[in-house]
Design goal:
Layout (H helix, E strand, L loop, with lengths): L24 H8 L6 H12 L6
Helix pairs in contact: 1-2
Family: Belongs to the universal ribosomal protein uL11 family.
GO cellular component, one term: cytosolic large ribosomal subunit
InterPro entries: Ribosomal_uL11, Ribosomal_uL11_N, Ribosomal_uL11_N_sf
């Protein structure tokens, strides 16, 4: 059973991502699963936050 979610608790998780591409969610699951987070949602958020607008 996952731990109870506490919105005031801060957890720091170090992940490596490159250029808006996220590896398989199976790689994220061991790190974010115990925190009660969805690996797919975290992967989508990482991709969105790291995407580039294109060549400038």
């Amino acid at each position: 059973m996952p731990p109870k979610f506490d919105p005031n608790e801060i957890k720091i998780v170090y992940l490596r991502c490159v250029g808006g591409e996220v590896g398989a969610t199976s790689a994220l699951a061991p790190k974010v699963g115990p925190l009660g987070l969805s690996p797919k949602k975290v992967g989508d958020d990482i991709a969105k936050a790291t995407q580039t607008e294109g060549p400038e």
